[in-house]
Amino acid sequence: MTSIVTEEKQFSFPRLKTEGSLDRIEDWCVPVKQIYNQQDVGNFEKSVAIHNIKSCIFKICQLISKCEVPKGVLDDELVSFEDGHKKNGHKNGSGGTGASRGGGLNLPPPVSNQEDGNGGNGSGSKDATGSSDFSKNLKPEVKAVLDLIARLNQLIVETPILPGPRRYGNMAFRSWHDSLSEKIEGFFHNHLKIFYKYNNFDLFITELTHYFIGSFGSRQRLDFGTGHELSFLAFINALLMVDILNRDTITGVDILIIFAKYYDLVKRLILTYTLEPAGSHGVWGLDDHFHLIYILGACQFIDFTSMEENNTTTAATTTKTNTSTHEYYQHHPFPHHRNKIPSPSSILNPMALHKFRTSNLYFNSISFIRKVKTGPFNEHSPILYDISAVKTWDKVTKGMIKMYFVEVLSKFPVVQHFYFGNVLYPWKDFETGKPLPASTEASRDNLKEGDIELEEQMKEKEKSERLEKIKKASTGIVSRNEINIHKPPPPVFGTESQRVRGGGGAQYKRVSGNNDNVAVTKAPWAK
């Protein structure tokens, strides 16, 4: 397997390419849309923006290697799927989000101080485990980010769900988003400004705000997906690039605590407001809502720095890759305080999920799936089921990162919602520093009002002509072959019961005979 790291041998957080101090930068701007088609995705892959994102991912993976989420950070109640919790109505029969069936949900206690944001389920509060020991040694800037997340937890308490059908999302989520948009500037000033070393904080947050608000689902579509997860990564990376979070002193545990609290908040939003999956591939996708969380969780079980060294093209690599998890970790020991490392197949064991779901993000996410979905795991999550057969966590990690680059960072439906400013994530070529080509569709924003009206009239005329053809076809006046109607593609081979389907990297094969109802899936690297 080829190396996943192509640009940097020494992992480091990205730094802003600026001339002189950040104080001198005046061209901060509200991020704008630049990705309108697949060609723009190709330009995105050359950009400073994606370089900043990938560099951040690699450095985070290195820092969180061999680290646990401290006790008391993750809320076990949000991912408990045992019988006692199923009765609360967190699961539904269709495999969708559990909140659609109602039932109780333990939210964090109200924030006691509206100004500083302490309380809720943030840095200074007790969670479902009754422990808050992890907060004693937090760096002030890390605690500030957790207090910011705590304020958003409090907004859930302040924004109760609306009565009525909730299958496609509760409309109260829009009120929650409106409250966030209204208060976000004050939140930033209260929690982050003190750690910003420059004099243009208000300009800085004109770009930062977009990525933070975009981290918690779509107000319009009432959904949450990997694009929103990406937006939070961009937010954290922005704090690192301007040293609100100190690049030189932040630890893997600090990062895990921040992301753990973020994922707890998102799970509350999903359960409370019945948020739909955004752009889900159904069973053919990795997960309805998340992807990055699996990369982080897998990295907790490996030494990311040495992973590349262990991935050579020699015969020894093949032997090492095929060894058991137990044998592998005998040669790659973890700190003495850790328990035995579970194998990837342990995600299928409820006892293992219960043991590791509050210390590892991978197991935490699997446990959440078990909470909100019903039926056999191999049926509703076949890709994750396939990955459980992989021998070692280093191979899982490499596969997850490659899949993330392909299925998230290179997919138009996801990255079309990633916007670009002038400083944090500029639409510039990483090699040359020059602006990347603007999409021809983007130029439509600059058309004169009369041109736009003419364009709309032409579209309406084309639509009318098409409807007229369809009407004639229904009366037999014109052949249906004259109408451009998209038809489903023919089977790739064989009879109706012999076909291959794919989605999200999966392969599905059905063969006629006694085992006609057996589905066989494969993750891209689960060989």
Automatic annotation (TrEMBL):
Indicate the principal place this protein occupies in or around the cell. cytoplasm
Q: Give a yes or no for keyword Transport in this entry.
A: no
List where in the cell it is found: Cytoplasm; Nucleus
Catalyzed chemical reaction(s): [protein]-peptidylproline (omega=180) = [protein]-peptidylproline (omega=0)
Any one Gene Ontology cellular component term annotated for this protein: nucleus
Q: Name one GO molecular function term.
A: peptidyl-prolyl cis-trans isomerase activity
One family from Pfam that matches here is PTPA
Under InterPro entries, the record lists: Phstyr_phstse_ac, PTPA_C_lid, PTPA_sf
Region Disordered, annotated ranges: 84-135, 479-527
Keywords of this protein's UniProt record, alphabetized?
Cytoplasm, Isomerase, Nucleus, Rotamase
Compositional bias (Polar residues): 126-135
Domain of life according to the entry: Eukaryota
- Family listed: Belongs to the PTPA-type PPIase family.
**Tell me, what does this protein do in biology?**
PPIases accelerate the folding of proteins. It catalyzes the cis-trans isomerization of proline imidic peptide bonds in oligopeptides.
Stated name of the protein: Serine/threonine-protein phosphatase 2A activator
Q: Which organism is it from?
A: Pachysolen tannophilus NRRL Y-2460
